[in-house]
Amino acid sequence: MTLAFVFGLIFLAGPLLFLLLSRARVAPPVLICGALGFFLLGLGLQHWGKAEIWPLTVLGLFWLAWIGTLAFAAVRLQAAQPAARRWTRVVGAVGTTVPWFGLATAAWMAG
Fold first, then answer.
1. How many domains does the chain have?
2. In a domain, 32, yes or no
3. Does residue 93 sit within a domain?
């Protein structure tokens, strides 16, 4: 997996997924797609330690959990303060890209 692919995934798919999850009403197809994604990543955990792909699966699950946590916090803040809706969506979408900086730093330090 190249860093360019991961960059595109994190900077495009992450904010889009966050914006879908942090809407006032989430459509059932979005929830079904999210559940299917978690299920497929969970299937990858069956090969824990056996295959070369399991670290990517775990990393993907951590990243999806990060986006889910940000979306949950944004929805709760929007419910408490409706005026904060725009800022929670902007800051949350930007927050989904935070793992990229850790990944890029680790790749840089590894050489």
1. 1
2. no
3. yes
Q: State the Cα–Cα distance between residues 5 and 11, nearest whole angstrom.
A: 10
Determine the structural domain holding residue 100 and report its residue range: 63-105
- Residue 24 domain-assigned (yes or no): no
Burial class (CB in 10 A: 0-12, 13-18, 19+), 60: middle
Confidence band, pLDDT 50/70/90 cuts, at residue 26: confident
Tokens coding 5: 């692919």
Burial class (CB in 10 A: 0-12, 13-18, 19+), 73: middle
Both structure tokens of 102: 């850790």
* 51-109 residue pLDDT tens: 676 677 778 878 888 998 999 899 889 889 988 888 999 999 999 988 888 878 888 89
